[in-house]
Amino acid sequence: MRSAIEGGMADAWAEFNTFKKDKVDTGEVGSAQFFGTAADLKGNYLYRMAGAVLGIYGNTAAEAIYPGFFNDAAGEPLTGANKYTFRFAPGQLPPVNAFWSLTMYEMPASLLVDNPVDRYLINSAMLDDLVKDPDGGYTLYIQNESPGAAREPNWLPAPKGPFALVLRLYWPKPDALDGQWQPPEPVKT
After folding, report:
1. Are 177 and 65 in contact (CB under 8 A)?
2. String of DSSP letters for 150-183
């Protein structure tokens, strides 16, 4: 019986790893599908597992959504060996009734990134301190080393190795929930 249970667990992890690589990392399936009531999940145990593994205690989509980024816009894994930008075009900040944040996690540990400026996220409360682009948008610089003094207010320090980003939208507006608004993607520079 023990062997059967351990085999079932191994099968579940293998299915989860394939699902994460093919569906979650590509953005096809996201946090809005991982959390909620039993009726919301309709017996989808793979999605329930994803919610527990990737974001235990997550909220329902009406309360918050969490677009995650494991790859850049070209589909390559995020790594501190590269430099990236994450740009909110004018008028395209996350549509929320409460607040939003973009948080950096060092992988595979999924821990916040120790860095010289003690900055682990950039959020809506920081907008007054960020440097706006000439067109009114915001470009965030995601890299291991400082992008220079003029850009440092918009710098989210990356580790030297692999990392992931999570954009949290608390009390999202309808256009975030129905897909009319799409988050930007990290772009390798």
Report:
1. yes
2. TTGGGEEE--SSBEEEEEEEESB-HHHHSSSS--
- Cα-flanking dihedrals φ and ψ of residue 163, to 5°? -150, 170
Q: What distance in Å separates the CA atoms of residue 145 and residue 143, rounded to the nearest whole number?
A: 6
Number of helices (H), then strands (E), in the chain: 4, 10
Phi, psi of 16 (to 5 degrees): -60, -45
Q: Give the whole-angstrom CA distance, residue 1 versus residue 119.
A: 49
The tokens describing 163, both together, are 């990392």
The DSSP result for 32-70, as a single string, is GGT-S-HHHHTT-HHHHHHHHHHHTTPPPTTTEE--EES
**Tokens of residue 174, six digits:** 């309808």
Residue 17 corresponds to which tokens in the numbers above? 């790893």
Q: What is the pLDDT of residues 115-162, one digit of tens each?
A: 999 999 999 999 999 999 999 999 999 999 999 999 999 999 999 999
DSSP secondary structure letter of residue 76: P
Q: Is the pLDDT of residue 181 over 80?
A: yes
Query: pLDDT-derived band of residue 25, with 50, 70 and 90 as boundaries?
Result: confident
| Residue at 152: amino acid letter | E
Contact 164, 67 (CB under 8 A): no
- For the whole model, what pTM was predicted? 0.81
Place of tokens 């096809």: 28
